[in-house]
Amino acid sequence: MNNVKVREIIQNNATRKNHRLDRVMPTFFLVMALLSVATTIGIVLTLVTDASKFFASVPLREIFSTKLAPLSAQPSYGILPLLMGTAMTTLVAILVAVPIGMAAAVYLSQFASPKLRKVLKPVLEVLAGIPTIVYGFFAYSFVTPLLMNLIPSLEPKNALSPGIVMGIMIIPMVASLSEDAMNAVPEIMREGAYGLGSTKLEVATKVVIPSAISGILASIVLAVSRAVGETMIVTIASGSTKNFTFDITKSMQTMTAYIVEFTSGDAASGTTGYYSLYAVGLILFLFTMVVNLIAQYISKKLREEY
């Protein structure tokens, strides 16, 4: 009886008030959502359309070669040097960011007092707000000279310095998202482990981290995507040498740095070099999309439901 009265009251209120705004806003939200989808589709179509002109004019054997010299008299468009530069700087960044970010997340989640956590976490997240061009100059003018004292063979432009600084840049992403995943683990699981005599470290390593592994992996993959797409740091500190090498002390060029170099005016519109920008952009897009899909698959496979 009470339920019937409540439903009648709700219905009467909805009919009597007849809010125009309530009828208009869902349509507005739908248009905004469709605008985002349309923008994404437009970007993909632009990349595919212009990249197809590049792939139609350059043989696949040349594309997957190690020689990249788009401005020479006999231009060559091998993409492997760019893939290698991107992979090496990203690898260095992940090697820096994951251990430090995970350690920070474990400390904030398991060991820090609430008062200390309120201070440390915002300070850590300040790193995420620093403009990337500042990180680039930091890598070139501070980290590189410092490393040259330790590694005499290090070139002024190299892949090591920007990789380290990119790792510093994405530490907040790994730490903050991993800490959120750890805090989402039910308190009763921690209390059960403590009740069995476990220490804080044992609870962190044997209960909390395995239970939050899907969220932790998601944070790491997001950090990888962020590092792969980073532009200014590698443009300033890594240089534009189109070498295919595994030596991170040498100058390398990443995919994003190549796009920046050519969009600054080196490639005339309508040339093969111009369309190579879209081909590189398309490969970068596919690379990050595949990484994200793999992350989603792993997260679903390892997700713990409570």
Summary?
The chain is 75% helix and 1% strand. The radius of gyration is 25 Å and the shape is globular. It comes from Alkalibacter rhizosphaerae.
| Unreliable segments of 5+ consecutive residues | none
Strand order of the largest sheet: 1-2
Mean pLDDT: 86
Supply Rg: 25 Å
Task: Give the helix level as a range of percent.
Answer: over 70%
Structural class: mainly alpha
What's the overall geometry?
A: globular
Discrete helix count: 13
Largest sheet: 2 strands, antiparallel
Percent strand equals: under 5%
Helices and strands, in order, run as HHHEEHHHHHHHHHH
End-to-end C-alpha gap: 36 Å
Number of strands: 2
Any chance you could write out the topology, listing elements then pairs?
Blueprint (H helix, E strand, L loop, with lengths): L1 H16 L2 H38 L2 H4 L4 E2 L6 E2 L2 H32 L2 H12 L6 H19 L9 H24 L3 H9 L4 H12 L1 H16 L3 H6 L17 H12 L5 H31 L4
Antiparallel strand pairs: 1-2
Helix pairs in contact: 2-13, 4-7, 4-10, 6-7, 7-10, 8-9, 10-13, 12-13
What does this structure look like?
By secondary structure, the chain is mostly helical. 75% of the residues lie in helices and 1% in strands. It is built from 13 helices and 2 strands, in the order H-H-H-E-E-H-H-H-H-H-H-H-H-H-H. It has helices at 2-17, 20-57, 60-63, 80-111, 114-125, 132-150, 160-183, 187-195, 200-211, 213-228, 232-237, 255-266, 272-302, and strands at 68-69, 76-77. It has a two-stranded antiparallel ribbon. Helix 4 packs antiparallel against helix 10, helix 7 runs antiparallel to helix 10 (213-228) and helix 10 (213-228) runs antiparallel to helix 13 (272-302). It starts with a helix and ends with a helix. The mean pLDDT is 86.
